[in-house]
Amino acid sequence: MGDVPTASWTVTQPWRGIFGMLVCLGIAFGISTAYSMSEFMGLFTAWAICIVPIEVIVGIPWGGKYPAEKFDNPWRGFLIILFMFFVATIALLFITRYIGGGGVMHTVGPIHPLMNVWIIGVVITTFFGVIAFGCWPFQKMSLPAKGFLTLLAVYLIWTAGFRLFNFDYIMLDPGFHIPAYIHGGVFESLAGVNPSGPIAWESGLTFFFGMVVFLFVLVHLGFWPISKFKSLMVQPMMGVATFIFCFIGAFITYAIMVWGMDLYPIYVMTLYVAYAFGMLGILFMFQMWPGRLWKGPTGGFINLLLAAVLAIVAFYGIRGFCSMTFGPEWFYASAAGHGYLQMGPDGWFSMANVMLALTFPAWAVYGPVFDFWPLPPTPAPPPH
Question: Number of structural domains, the chain?
Answer without folding.
Answer: 1
